[in-house]
Each structure stands twice: as C-alpha cells, then as structure tokens.
C-alpha cells in the first residue's frame, strides 16, 4: 500500500516502513541502541531525503527506546543516576550538534556530512568492538562462564575529580567521563539522527566499566530524552520532521522493542556485542560503497532555496 509523505515529498510502501520500524525496535531491545545507525541509512536507501530521515528517525527512536526501557525497569537493570549524568551532557551536545547541522545545511553540504559521519563512526566503532568481542568470547571459552574477566576500575577515569557513587552499576567514578560521553552522543543524535547507542554502549562498558546487563537499560533511558529533545529542535528550526513517516515507524518499533528485550536475555554479553559489531560493519560497508560508486544519474536538477 503506497502512501505519500508530505514533508519528504515521496511515496513509499506503508507496510515496508512498519516492518523497518519493527526491525529497529528489535535491535533497540537486544542491544540497548536506538537503532538509528541502521534505520537512517535504510531511509536513505528507499529515497527519503537525508535531512528528513535524520529529524524523523530521532522521533521514532524515542518510542522504541521507551518501550525497551519499560522492560528493563521491570528487571531493575537501569542505573537512573548514571543515566541522568549522561543525559545532562547529551542535551548540551544535541544543541551543539543542531547548530553544526544548520550551518552545513545552509552551505548545501549536510547530506555529505551525514553520510561521511556514518562511514567514519560506524567503521571505527564496529571494527574495535568486533575485535574486542571476539577476544572476550575466546577468553570465556577457555576460562569458563563462572570466571568472567574483571572490569578495570583503575586508570585515568579513577584519577579524575568530582567522583560520584553509582550503586546500580557498582561504580565510584568521576562524573566527567559520563558527561563527555553524553555530550558526544548528543552531537551525533542531532547530526546523524541516531540515539548514539553504538557509541554509548561500548563507552559505558570499556571506558566507564559498567556491567553489560546495566548498560543496555541505562543507554535506552538516556536515549529517550536526548532524541526527544533533538526531534523538538529539528521540528521547530528546520521543519523536517515528517509525522506520517514517524507514525508508521513507531508502530513497528514499539512492538519490536519488546521482542528484542526477550531475545537479548537469552544471549551472553559477549555474544550481543559481536552481533552488534557485525551489524555496524555491514551498514558501514553499504554506505561506503554508495559514496564511492558512480551514481546512475550524474546530474540532478533542483530548486534553489530562498
């Protein structure tokens, strides 16, 4: 069933959008990511303009993440104090990211910025996370599931001032690293239309030293508010949020998040990270290929903005 999207100014299959939303919802529940790193490129592939895809996908992430957080709250795997610290940095980063987005949009370079950002960040994060996760799986196979490797509690993170105790995560660390992680994720949310989970989840595990079972729910908690704030900024300043597109993605995302949460409880943390890294690398490869290959149409006639 074809449906016309007024802001994106294209016609797409409604069932396809619902299905894509469901897929992203499953990823949200399983990995603690908003799923925007996959959905936004998929929207590019089906013809949605990048500016509309970025702004609208941030809106869809809110619902799928909220659904996932409810499931994790019932399991008491959300560190609300850590999530609040990450959120403070995320809101500041979102405002900064939108300023960068708007400046490049006026220069006509925002589409290239979004695509290059995906290739760079997904490539680096996916490769590092895949290598580390494979090593962790090999260690667990040798040592056995009863002797998991200890998280590092020392180093530069422990030496910083303004320390706070995060009881749910079992940490006593400075608030500076979580604030910086949140700031980076906020910038990415505004520029790339992502929840930032593909950056936040590895950072929370390897930099902050949080246990995997708490990371997922805490990441989703922060994502809800940062992406909601990002959507509001895009809607009021750029008018690029397509409500019809967002509703169709939401329908699938809310249901998919519940399914993904149940699937995630059946896999070990190392297995979840390997799967997430593989997905990140596949999406990165597709985007890089599209940037390098010669397009079917070398020229495009467009109407100048006034």
From TrEMBL:
UniProt keyword annotation of Membrane present: yes
Q: Which GO terms describe its cellular component?
A: plasma membrane
Membrane-spanning regions, if any? Answer: 12-39, 85-104, 116-134, 179-207, 214-235, 241-260
The protein's location, in the record's own words, is: Cell membrane; Membrane
Write the record's keywords in alphabetical order, separated by commas. Cell membrane, Membrane, Transmembrane, Transmembrane helix
Could you tell me the membrane topology recorded for this protein?
Answer: Multi-pass membrane protein
Return the Pfam families for the record.
TauE (PF01925)
The text of the family note is: Belongs to the 4-toluene sulfonate uptake permease (TSUP) (TC 2.A.102) family.
Q: Tell me what this protein is called.
A: Probable membrane transporter protein
What species was this sequence derived from?
Hasllibacter halocynthiae
